[in-house]
């Protein structure tokens, strides 16, 4: 009888993955990625749109609460600039401020005596990649006694590159809500406007 060679049996059981098998796995993964990529991109786009709408809503609510909290004789003003880049800025000046310029929109008391209000809070569209904005109001004056939007009602419309749309609607009384326009692709979780 011939002696067994342990090396041959060992080699057969330790056989690895062939190049053909590896290529098949790579091709299958590429096909799955190509199918999933558009869905993933749409999910990211929707997420950015929702984040922008909620940030605009929060900025309007913050401006109202700051106006009431400061309880100043003068009202705060919310400047809204649509287009590219879009932004919202809070100021206690009598004119619209340019919220695209750092330091242009300031509000609150001047505690250090330099003649400039101390607080600054702007919301910039650059933080929400590829989300556009249109608005029916370029400024909103906020009544410091009631937190209402003095005579101004409006809509801020936020859009994604693929046409998804959310609106932030505000009334003269200061009520603010987010909705999805009828007839457009509805963004889940928000009522129809």
Walk me through this protein's architecture:
The chain has about 190 residues and is of the alpha+beta class. The chain has one domain: 3-Layer(bab) Sandwich (minor pseudopilin epsh fold). Helix content is about 30%, strand content about 20%. The protein has two helices and eight strands, in the order ααββββββββ. The strands form two sheets. A four-stranded antiparallel β-sheet has the order 3-2-1-5, covered by helices on one side. A four-stranded antiparallel β-sheet has the order 4-6-7-8, with helices on one face. The model has no long low-confidence stretch (mean pLDDT about 80).
What structural keywords apply?
elongated, four-stranded antiparallel sheet, alpha+beta, 193 residues, single chain, minor pseudopilin epsh fold
Low-confidence stretches: none
How would you sum up the global shape? elongated
Cross-sheet strand order for the largest sheet: 3-2-1-5
Q: Mind telling me which CATH architecture this is?
A: 3-Layer(bab) Sandwich
Beta content = 15-25%
Written as H for each helix and E for each strand, in order along the chain, the element string is HHEEEEEEEE
Q: Kindly give the count of domains.
A: 1
What structural class do the secondary elements suggest?
Answer: alpha+beta
Main sheet attributes: strand count, strand direction, barrel closure: 4 strands, antiparallel
Can you count the helices?
2
Query: Percent of residues in helical segments?
Result: 25-40%
What is the radius of gyration computed over CA atoms, rounded to a whole number of angstroms? 28 Å
CATH names the topology as minor pseudopilin epsh fold
The average pLDDT is 82
Q: Kindly report the name of the CATH homologous superfamily.
A: minor pseudopilin epsh domain
State the name of the first-level CATH class: Alpha Beta
- Through-space gap between termini: 89 Å
Compute the number of strand runs: 8
């Amino acid at each position: 009888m011939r002696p067994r060679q342990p090396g041959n049996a060992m080699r057969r059981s330790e056989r690895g993955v062939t190049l053909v098998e590896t290529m098949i796995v790579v091709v299958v993964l590429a096909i799955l990625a190509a199918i999933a990529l558009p869905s993933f991109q749409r999910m990211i786009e929707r997420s950015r749109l929702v984040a922008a709408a909620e940030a605009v809503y929060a900025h309007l609510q913050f401006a109202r609460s700051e106006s009431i909290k400061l309880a100043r004789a003068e009202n705060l003003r919310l400047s809204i600039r649509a287009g590219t880049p879009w932004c919202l800025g809070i100021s206690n000046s009598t004119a619209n401020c340019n919220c695209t310029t750092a330091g242009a929109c300031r509000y609150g008391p001047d505690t250090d005596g330099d003649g400039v209000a101390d607080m600054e809070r702007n919301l910039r569209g650059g933080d929400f990649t590829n989300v556009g904005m249109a608005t029916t109001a370029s400024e909103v004056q906020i009544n410091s006694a009631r937190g209402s939007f003095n005579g101004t009602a409006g809509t801020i419309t936020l859009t994604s590159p693929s046409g998804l749309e959310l609106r932030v609607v505000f009334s003269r009384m200061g009520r603010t809500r987010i909705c999805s326009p009828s007839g457009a692709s509805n963004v889940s979780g928000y009522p129809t406007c």
